[in-house]
TrEMBL record:
The keyword Hydrolase applies. Signal peptide: none annotated. InterPro entries: GH, GH13_cat_dom, Glyco_hydro_b, Malt_amylase-like_C, O16G_dom_2. Residues 2-352 form the Glycosyl hydrolase family 13 catalytic domain. GO terms for biological process: carbohydrate metabolic process. Transmembrane segments: none annotated. The lineage of its organism: unclassified sequences, metagenomes, ecological metagenomes. Keywords: Glycosidase, Hydrolase. The gene is apu_2. Pfam families: Alpha-amylase, Malt_amylase_C. GO terms for molecular function: hydrolase activity, acting on glycosyl bonds. The keyword Hydrolase applies. This is Amylopullulanase.
Amino acid sequence: MYIKDNEGNIVRRDFYGGNLKGIIDKLGYLKKLGVSIIYLSPIFEASSNHKYDTGDYKKIDAMFGDEEIFKELLDKASKKGINIILDGVFSHTGADSIYFNKYNRYSELGAYQSEESRYNSWYKFNDYPDDYDCWWGVKSLPNVNELDPTYMDYIIKDDDSVLKRWTTMGVKGWRLDVADELPEKFIKEFKKELKGVADDTILIGEVWEDASNKISYNQRREYLLGEQLDSVMGYPFRSNIVSFLKSDIKSIDLLNRFMQIKENYPSEAFKSNLNLIGSHDVKRIKTELNEDKELVKLAVGIQMTFEGIPYIYYGDEAGVCGNTDPDNRRTYPWKKEDEDMIEYYRNLTTIRKKYKALIYGETSFIDTKNADVFAFIRKTEDEKMLIVVNRSEKENDIKLDLDENTIEEIDIESNLKKYIEDTFEDDRSFEVNIKAKSLKVFNLKNLIV
């Protein structure tokens, strides 16, 4: 939490939250939730509580622990089948850093202190030392020249570069903060070196729009053409889901929006898209949907059955509320969790892992001819799943024309087959009844010869 003055400068901070030991202690909880990857927001030394003002890229912030504790986390998480991804903030550093050292808190000679500093070429000074380029005008975040050779070496290329130091330790990927503000050459070099260290790693970018045709600083970006990002943060996914559940758009509009993204993205990128409904940059999903728990469950249900990678913002599964930053960074409500919501998440992650079509399957969309009901199919060669979502306050009957002659409903609460419905009609049509504000998952089969 932070307090600003009338000019928007941060004048006081309150620190609260967890640490790396706490994550280690809760690995069992995360495993039961179905988590296979933990993406950590910045953990490197920094003066703020959010840590996006890096002070030292090669040191764990003491608030969270130290390098030995981090290694312990990597080891124990790996034994549970959980990998760790780090947040890389490389478009700027902190003013209070070993590199800039505006407040003389580090023994290293910083760029602000002397033009003879070995870090001086990283920054652009308009009138040395107080007038310098900074991120969105925030003086505590001086921008860096990412293509400066010494910066590229320090972050990417040196034997003990930031990338190599933490990746060789066991980190399985990086999320690049504000990817739009990073030069393409920087991203390409980062990915090339990352894959050279370990080819089973992943590079994710913070991109808010359709990443296939994003124009940033008058340049069309090529994020998804193979040499840059493996995946992006799925903010369009969230926007689409929220718009539908708040009745701002109809089901056919949602279908068309998803189809546009699916057609624009390479198949590999669409399957690895981080489908988020919450993050530290937006309202909590429960708050966004006016604390309507039934609608929140619909959002989660779509997220867990849709093509891509479900991304859970800590605490959403426990019913945490919160407006925009910093209110959305509330601590996890231990012993005050919404146990029903946690169980709902667990049931959906179990179903997702049980039916491979929900992980690897292709997606086709169904025009239900009903503004309140959205439906889509996930399929592999061996499985075919139907998902139907009704946002309405009333139940709906939907007629669906399918290739199969049998549908089995999967009960989300019990993960059991609830009932089987057959059709002998030549047109293979089914009428599905779906209750108000509910989501159903069906297994489609041909059991009748």
